[in-house]
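Lab meeting notes turned into a lecture example. A postdoc, R.K., suggested we walk through two folding results consecutively so the class can see how the record format repeats. The first protein's sequence and structure tokens come next.
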Amino acid sequence: MSGVKLKRNCLNVKQKLEILQQLDKRESASNDAEDVLNEGNTISHSAALQSVETLLDYMGRRGFDYGDINAVRKISVHIRQEIYKQQKQRSITDILKK
């Protein structure tokens, strides 16, 4: 890749937050209330994961900085871990009910 320059888009924190909020609004509008809301005004893990995956797709297509994409991937991993913990807890609860 001699002589080829890659254009990288770097966003500040405010710009990243605005993108996340816009994606969140779109996802909230397209999902049912049961999927989006879980216990009051909190967003369900599945809705959050879907928003983060949409953001990753967007960032990948727009050529964002690798560090920014990696930070969002870490968020995705954390959400998946939380989903796994909930599923494991449900399994334990179901076993104890029997």
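The second example is placed directly after the first for contrast:
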Amino acid sequence: MADRRTFLKRYLRCNRCLKIFRDPVTLGCNHSFCLSCLETFWEQEKHRNCPACKRKSSKEDTEVNNALKELADSFAGRQKTESFRREKQEKGCDGMLVCEHSNDPQLFCVDEQRAVCPVCDFPHQQSHEVISVEEAVSVLKEQLKSDLKSLQDKRNKYKQVEETYNEVREHMKKQLLSTERQIRAEFNKLHQILKEEEKSRLAALREEEEQKGRTINREMKMIEEQISSLSDSISAVEEELQKHSMPFLSSYKDTQSRARAQGSVSDPQLVSGALIDVAKHLGNLSFRVWEKMKEKVHFSPVILDPNTANRWLYLSDDLTSVRREDTWQKLPNNPERNIKYPTVFGSEGFSSGKHSWEVEVGDHPDWIVGLVKESADRKEERSALPKYRIWCLWYCSGKYTNDVGQTVKVKKSLQRIRVELDYDRWEVSFYDPKDMTHIYTYRDTFTEKLFPFFSIGKAGDAKTSDIKICQTAI
């Protein structure tokens, strides 16, 4: 009978809490645990594996095994627990670790998790599982060590995040200074362009004023000469009119001829366009200045995001080219950053419409160009394959490879790559922009935002150390 009871006790004991099962759950692997013990284990370990064999379990495995529960409750005599406690109180045992019968308890009740008196709690020992204090201490210390390790691991994770936040804060200060410097530099360029344009237009205004002033001066000099000549003729005629009969008759014809010659001269006319052409200088001034600025300012269809760049990668100030160096930068491990591979993403993603851009790769021996989904893993190992939601053209070891690892044949070495995305038709295509020769098209189902994707290896002896997004005028 004792052997049978020992066997049942071993069969009905949860190996997590060492107690007789309470609300037992039997997993698909046939291992059983108390429901609360199993849920606590899963919460601590962040997975749903069996504590015994590590086999993964489903949500359906958490249903209580009623048959095993009834057997465990019956074996433990739990229905008598309350009446037993009342009886014990009547006998004067206060439930403390020590009582009047013993100053050094040797037994431990697994069900109630307390030391018990071998005299006062003798009936208790018949219905509950009781083990030696030494065994209980050993088991409980192991459990506490496990809890301690869990707490230490949790604290280490918080410390890692705290350290990363400190790195982010320091990097933000550097970003602030660097970005302010570059903004000022860009606006200084724009200001210089505007100053040069202002100077040019003011010079043109003054030149027109001087030119038209010379014309007016020339015309006024001619008028002054005519006025002087006419004044002389008028004085001669007035003098002639003062003469008496015979002197008048002898000289009037010459005076009259000169007067009539002067009177036949055409009337003076104002020169057209003598005023400054204000409309020419002010009309649509801002727009025409902007048109001039377009010739000197460039637009890039893709801007690289420095917050995603791997530590081995260095971006240009205008964020349109990337190169790989032999020394890595001290950058924070923020969620957006690519850690495992020398990769950088574009700053803007696409979730609809048509988009295209060109990448200048020159003779760089190792690069990947294409698109990647927003949720792609940026920390762990991954391959440039569609199953990782990366659609790309890869050049390495002198050959071009597509998304599925197949070699792509090209007529000549590619210096530039044109990437075209038609999101609504679920197509990513690659072309040689020199003659728009089609290289490869991949078709898939897009379910989230896609970002331009660039990866670059070491340049080696190649003349080209950067790969860059080709800029086009606005």
